[in-house]
Specification:
Strand 6 and strand 7 form a beta hairpin. The chain is of the alpha+beta class. The protein has 2 domains: about 120 residues, 2-Layer Sandwich (Nonspecific Lipid-transfer Protein, Chain A); about 120 residues, Nonspecific Lipid-transfer Protein, Chain A, CATH 3.30.1050. Helix content is about 45%, strand content about 20%. The strands form 2 sheets. The protein has a 5-stranded mixed sheet.
Length: about 250
C-alpha cells in the first residue's frame, strides 16, 4: 500500500529535487531557463512537505520551506500535490501571478525534460549520453527517496530505527554517489560521496545499476557475483536493502 503523505515527500524532495541534477548534467536543461533574474517557486503542501526551488544562471537549487519565494503553489492535501506529478491537478498560485509565464513555459519545459529522462523511450536509451544522464538522475531520485521512506512510511520508519548512527556510502563506480546519513532513527540524503562511511554499497557499473533499477537483475544474485559490493556494517546495509524494496513500490 502506498501512503500518500510519504509519496508527497518523495515527489517533492526526490523527484522535483532531481531538477538540481538535471540542470547540472544536461546543458539543454539550462538553456530552457530563460529568466534573467533569479526566480523561485515555493511548494507548500498542507499536512506534508514544503520546499522552494530557486532558478539562477541556468541552474536550480532546492531548499526546505516555502516562506520566501517569488511564486507560491499551495496544495490542500498530499493527494492534491501528488496529482500535480501525475498530471491530474493544475495548481493555482497564491503568489506571483506576474511570473506565470515562467511557470507555464520554462518550468513546464524543464519538468517535461526530466520526465523524458525518468521514463525514457527504449530507443532513447540507445544513446550513450542519454543513458548515463537518465541512470544518474534515477540514482539521485532513489537516493533521496530512501530517506523519505525511512522518515515517513510506516514500514520505513520501523526499519530506519534499526540503522546505527553514521554514514552509508551509496554509489555507482565511476559515476554518481550519495551519502545516506542516519542519526537517532532519522535519515537524510546528501548528494555527494561519503567521506567516512560505516558501510558501503556500490554498483560496479552504471549499466548494472540501470538493470537493477529496471528490475532486470536480482540484487541478491549480483551481491553473490560481486557486482554489487557491500562492505562495513552489514546490519546497516541489510536495512538499507529493505528501504530500497519500498522505493520500488513508490517509484513504480
Amino acid at each position: 500500500m502506498v501512503d500518500q503523505k510519504t509519496l508527497a515527500y518523495i515527489n517533492l524532495y526526490a523527484v522535483l529535487g532531481t531538477l538540481e541534477n538535471l540542470s547540472e548534467l544536461d546543458p539543454a536543461a539550462g538553456a530552457l531557463l530563460t529568466n534573467k533574474k533569479p526566480l523561485s517557486i515555493g511548494f507548500e503542501v498542507k499536512g506534508g512537505p514544503s520546499a522552494t526551488i530557486t532558478f539562477k544562471n541556468g541552474r536550480c537549487r532546492m531548499e526546505q520551506g516555502a516562506a520566501d519565494c517569488d511564486i507560491k503553489l499551495p496544495f490542500s492535501s498530499c493527494e492534491k500535490f501528488n496529482g500535480l506529478l501525475d498530471g491530474t491537478v493544475t495548481p493555482i498560485p497564491s503568489k506571483g501571478f506576474r511570473h506565470i509565464g515562467f511557470l507555464l513555459k520554462d518550468f513546464t519545459a524543464l519538468t517535461d525534460l526530466l520526465a523524458k529522462y525518468m521514463r525514457p523511450a527504449p530507443e532513447d536509451l540507445e544513446d550513450e549520453d542519454f543513458f548515463v544522464i537518465s541512470t544518474s538522475l534515477m540514482f539521485y531520485t532513489i537516493s533521496v527517496a530512501i530517506a523519505q521512506i525511512g522518515n515517513n512510511d510506516k514500514i520505513g520508519i520501523f526499519t530506519s530505527k534499526y540503522i546505527a548512527d553514521g554514514d552509508i556510502s551509496f554509489a555507482i563506480a565511476g559515476g554518481p554517489a550519495a551519502t545516506i546519513r542516519a542519526k537517532n532513527g532519522r535519515l537524510v540524503t546528501i548528494k555527494c560521496e561519503a567521506e567516512k562511511p560505516r558501510a558501503v554499497m556500490q554498483f560496479d557499473s552504471i549499466k548494472l545499476a540501470r538493470d537493477l533499477f529496471d528490475g532486470k537483475v536480482n540484487a541478491l544474485a549480483c551481491i553473490g557475483a560481486g557486482t554489487i559490493s557491500m562492505k562495513g556494517m552489514i546490519a546497516m546495509l541489510d536495512n538499507l536493502n529493505r528501504l530500497l524494496d519500498r522505493v520500488a513500490l513508490y517509484l513504480a
